[in-house]
Hints:
The protein contains 6 helices and 13 strands. By secondary structure, the chain is of the alpha+beta class. It folds into 2 domains: about 50-320, Sortase, Chain: A (Beta Barrel); about 320-380.
Amino acid sequence: MNSNLASFSLTSTVMLISRIFRRIGQTLILLGFLTLLFVVYQLWGTGLLTERYQQGLENDFEELVEQVEEVADEPKEVISDSEVKPDLGEFLWRSEGEAMAQLTIPALNLSKTVVSGVGVEALRKGPGHYSYTPLPGMPGNSAIAGHRTTWGAPFGDINKLEPGDEILIQTVQGSFTYRVVEQMGGRGHFIISPYRLDVLDQNFDTYPNRLTLISCHPKLTARQRIIVVAELVGEPADYYPPPKRAMFSLNLSFGIEGGDTSTQIDPSGTSDEQTPTTQAPPQDDPSPVEANPPSSETTSSQGNDLGESTEVTSFGEGLEGDKDAIAPTVAWGIAVFMIIITTLLVANRWRKWPAYFIGFFPFIAAVAVWFFNLEKALPS
């Protein structure tokens, strides 16, 4: 009798342990499957979305150029006997995420429409222009950021750029050519920490009219930044300040402290006349870019066009991740697992395949939203 009880107890224990390990194995398989789905979404799904964005942006930029040509053909509004109000600045400075330039790099077989801003949503559409730097073609240091591995990876191969390679930019002011500047070791790029922000400064002693391309390094991480500097060939275009009704108030942060790029609206609701100038925006602390520059300040002070000082504390949430997306990421992750658990419980008490079929559609919808927010929260 005791022998039978002992045998039954041992069998029950073995079955319990076997059941536990089976559940653990099933959970690990599920986690592996979700991880694989997320990798597929990041490497291919985001690229398809960016391609759709780019198609629309290309059309938007073409329409923008046509609008400028129409305005140029019209008589300008005379404000006084000696003053004419230009309209070009209204077309040059675009809202966050709107098309503002066409970028072509023949050496990389790259042609992308550049949007205004470097927020998460902006960089999902394509390369983004730092709105507190001059526009491409204008005097000064114009900076553009882009992804290297996801969302079309526009800057995936900028490490392959060689000194002398051309970078072509078209804005509504015209077409401009930049040439990649040689860095240490004969390379066309250099690597810096994410805290090294002086590459966004203005009024450089060497190559004062430049284009700075910025992305994350190494690929698949945001541990460092890869920088390509190119000098403008020929004379710069006139500098147009942004309209006063769209003042830029930068609040970019790194890590847990910060916020995101914000735009403050002029309470007066008026826009002053825009007068072109050949001078770049003032810069409080200019310092030349060097190959593999040593670590220094973690902030960069940008003088903007309205006479205000803008403190830059990061390369933007588009490259470093959006902390506001963490909460919805957690919430949708919980929703995904609740759908899975509910589907399995229903399948065990009902017929399996009908339960799986019914649970499939809410599962796919929840996973899509989860991945969208998860990718938004993660660094580029």
